[in-house]
Amino acid sequence: MWKKIRKYIIPLSICLILISTAVAGCAEEEPAPAPAPAPSPAPEPEPEPAPAPEPEPEPEPAGPTKNSIVIGASRPLSGPNAPIGDAAFGPIMQMWQERVNAEGGIYVEEYGKKLPVEYIIYDDATDVGTMVRLTEKLILEDEVDILFSACGTAFISAQAPVANKYGMVLLTAEGGATIMRDALYGLPYVFISLPFSDHYQLPVFAEMAAAKGAKTAYIITIADLHGVEYGGVAAIEFPKYGIEVIANKSVPITYTDFSLLVKDAKAADPDLFCVFAYPPIIMPVTGEMMAIGFNPPAVLMGPGANFGFYGISFGGDPMTINGVTCFAAANEKTSPEFAQLYADLEALVGWPNLDWWGHPYYAPLVQIWQEAIEVTGTLDQDVLRDYIASNQFDTILGNTYFEMFGEFGGGLMVKDTHPGEIGQWQDGTVEIVGGGDWPGVVLTSDWVYPKPDWPTP
Amino acid sequence: MNITRFTSKGFLIPGLISLVILIALVTLPFYGSLYNVIMVTSILMYIILTVSWVLFSGPTGYMSLATAAFFGIGIYASAIFLPNTGAILPLLVVVVIGGLVSSLVALGVGALTLRLRGIYFAIFTFGLVVLILELGNWWEHTVTHTRGRFVMLVDNDVIFYIMLAIFVLLMLTTYLIRRSKFGLAMRSIGENEEAAAHIGVNVTMVKVITFAISAFFMGAAGVIWATKLTYVDPYVAFNPLFSFMPVLMAIFGGMGQIYGPVIGAVIFAYLQEKLQTEFPYYYMLIFGFVLVAAILYLPDGLIGLIQKLWRLIRRWRKGGAAKQDANT
Amino acid sequence: MPESIVTIMDVAIGGLLLGGIYALIAMGLSLQYGVARVLNISHGEFIMLGAFSTFTLYTVVGINPLICLAIVGPIAFIIGFLLQRTLFTQLRTSAPNPGAFEASSLLATFGLMYVIQGIALQIWGADYRAYTYLNFGVDLGGAIFSANKLVILGFAIGIGVAFYIFLARTHMGKGIRSAAQDPTTASLMGVNINRVLALCFGFGAAMAGLAGVLYSMRIPLNPAMGLQYTLIAIIIIVLGGLGSIPGAFIGGLILGIIGEIVTYIDPSLSLAAYYFIFMLLLLVRPKGIFGK
After folding, report:
1. Is residue C263 part of a domain?
2. Which of B119, B131, B252 is the closest to C276 by Cβ?
3. Which of A124, A245, A352, A395 sits at a 20 to 30 Å CA gap from C7?
4. Is C181 contained in some domain?
5. pLDDT digits (tens, 9 = 90+) for A352-399
């Protein structure tokens, strides 16, 4: 009996699962780029071992008769970075495309007409080598007009030199680090948008905490080089304001049990408890804090506590995490434009995928692109680069521009553009509670210090 | 060696095919697009990893999962000696250094793991990858205080030719080892280690030296690969995926023949790229199904299929000839 | 209670919890690799599936995660059973020798890993998911532990012990054990080897699914989470000795406790220390702690 089953059930189940998932995928309103793939039982074997791939059919012939603006991006659609890519820059890309195309496209003078936006999105499966190769494919073979950012600090660090080498302007999205800022002097085509550790998150936080009388800080960082960067910057900034760092521990990425660390922190009784790590760590740490009743006056978590999904991870109700401090720039109260942005995003991808740190900086990126193209009337990268480098843009953030690094360097979004640096979960949403001392900072609420107790179960 | 072997038909056809492929590859930058060169470079990288993995693990039967460690050592050598601020040493010298350091580590590991067999050896070597990754990470943030390193950019054609040179050297080495007494000794270890030792094979020496040779090529490839990555930190360099990829590619291709792993790596890498770009949202699903289906319907790997086809063609030709005879 | 005893309890309970989960996962893989000779790279994906199913059943349908154990376990068992009966039996019968079967099944499970992750991506999307269950503190003589931790610990060890008794006492269990020791003799002695292997694979998948149900109470879920547990399980079955089910169980507990002790001393090097100790043990005892 089993032999017969074996003979029929395997091919049958292969077909069935492929079809059903393809249907499920389409039903979930994904921007399904391709029809259901035909189930192929075996790869087309190429008998000759020559590794020379045949030239592929050009997807979109570029030329004077242009029908669309082709934008390429290598994104983590699968693998460990997929949850972040899915919630951060991804929704902004999708929303912008829908809006622009509904208006008939972007007017490009060069071609004398409005051109709709078309994406070529590849899956880099969260691998840097793949991402670099796909980026080169986008630039060289697909000849995309515009390159959009990869996802993750290590990823944009690798993508920046490559984009720069081919003269493609790159406005980076998810990621930023001191090492990238240092490299900007040699990367004229690269513009960094997202704020990071000493630009100006931790200095602002340290000043806020010191003003409330915080004296000690217990820090946990993820043991990769960027988690460690936050720990290092905190160790510099906190003592400036008289806050003593009593512990600075790093934990491996794959670690899952945090009871001992949280208990150790509880025993140390710090004023500030900072966890500079990603969602797989900050979420269990938060749960453990609730369970054993560790409630220090301030809890700073991130990156990750700035997403809606963090809020609903503890019993589905964001009220449970009231008082947790995170990195955040703006929310729906910051300005009417932001209210509109967050309403649109929520309608598109749902509340759990809202990001109060990243979205305020990714949304201007597409606005900057649009303005640069409309004003210069071209898709020429050098012209666009010079325009972006030397102009101030009126975006959702207000007056937005980049500080240029040297005569032949790239740009970093200036701090004066940041409407806020630090947020706090209050009444089930993230309020902006801390920013720099420059005009343009919009705080939506006061920082609650000490934070309220965790809810009693 | 017997001279007639070289002139015999059995050598001529594969030799000619290899020569044609080699010429096609060497001249690729003149007729292919720049992206073709880049794509072939990355396929060559996979071939080098796979073939050098098979070089040791194929005949001896020891499944090594240390590939990512040796490859990563090469990548890190590149990050240290070829920073974006200016090369400290010439590229080719770094390639050799990366290879040599990998070989040295392989010598040490090989000598340490003499007693381990089968899965125990495999898991020990995998542990090596994670250990080096974690120690490297710890070293970077507590001792050197770097937060990632940028590698200098190298012209794509240069990268391609160096990768190709490593590939050719590797194929020659593999070919020579298979034909030599050394290769025979390795196969005898794979069949029965005790018996091999009994008939006078210096088992330890053969194992450790082959391990080091295969690590040399992995390290050298890593040095070149790093110039494509441009940004290196321990998680990028010591990606455990590179431990499994060569194994899978070799099984996919079939390990019986020298060209099996090559074909496996080519198809595997090409397929992955096709799926990631053509069906990005279904990449994992389709790729997984292709793997399962391939192993179900091609149990001997791709070369099994090729051999079957070859036999079919030969029989068909023979049959055709017989029919013609009958007609006349 | 004095501080030092509280700390020791902390380390012990934390270690046993981690170890209990590891033990479940490793016992599952031990059945699959030790008996069925399938080094199942997709083992962790069953953990992921178990965890996601629990998430959906709990947050959407409102079924208690502990009841999910009784739902997910049998389903995972059936999936595993069918996989062995179809896919792996096909591979086994067509392979010329055991080595070739191990190679082809490795590739097949790698493919399965991609397939299962791909399916999970389609069903649940790539986002992080989490829920809380029994997330409050329980005071054990001065030391506070979260209740879900103690529940997980109890269930993990309970399931492990129950399964061991099943293996040791029942007729079916004896069949599995004899097949683990020597498949050819077992089949000569009248054990239906295909059925036993399918049972093993099914139990292996069920163990992973149960571990997923239990651990989902404490960790955030996403489709890519499985592989790290597979790697840990491989290490444990090697540490415990191939084919030794008590070895896998005890090896899991030991690794959990070592991990917790190392974390207590210095978390930043815990993974490195982990692997260092493991490699050292392997050098001293090349066939694992319980290997013969």
Report:
1. no
2. B131
3. A245
4. yes
5. 999 999 999 999 999 999 999 999 999 999 999 999 999 999 999 999
* Domains contained in chain B, number: 1
How many angstroms away from the CA of B328 is the closest CA of chain C?
A: 43
Higher pLDDT, A29 or C254: C254
Q: Is residue B32 situated within a structural domain? A: no
Q: Model's pTM, two decimal places? A: 0.89
| Long-range pairs of B26-34 with CB within 8 A, sequence gap ≥ 24 | B26/B164, B28/A52, B28/B160, B29/B157, B29/B160, B32/A52, B33/A55, B33/A140, B33/A141, B34/A140, B34/B156
Does A214 score more than 90 pLDDT? yes
| Chain B CB within 8 Å of residue C111 CB | yes
C266 band by pLDDT with thresholds 50, 70 and 90 = confident
Average pLDDT of chain C? Answer: 86
| Residue C61, domain extent | 22-222
Specify the 3-state DSSP secondary structure of A273: strand
Domain that holds residue B129: 48-250
Contact (CB<8Å) A250/B148: no
Q: Looking at this protein, which amino acid is placed at residue C107?
A: L
Please check whether residue B304 lies inside any domain of the structure: no
Look at residue C193 and tell me if it is in a domain. yes
On the CB side of A8, CA atoms within 13 Å amount to 4
In single-letter form, the type of residue at position B305 comes to L
pLDDT band at B6 (very low <50, low <70, confident <90, very high): very low
C224 with A260: Cβ contact below 8 A: no
Q: Is residue C117, in this structure, part of any structural domain at all?
A: yes
In chain A, % of residues over pLDDT 90 = 70
Does some domain include residue B315? no
Contact B291 C283 (CB under 8 A): no
Whether residue B68 lies inside any domain: the answer is yes
Q: How far apart are CA B16 and CA B5, in angstroms?
A: 15
Query: What are the DSSP calls for A104-153, one per residue?
Result: T-EEEGGGTEEE-EEEEEEE-TT-HHHHHHHHHIIIIIS--SEE---SSH
Q: Is residue C43 over pLDDT 60?
A: yes
Determine the pLDDT at residue A5.
63
Instruction: Among A25, A34, A134, select the one facing B276 at the smallest CB separation.
Output: A134
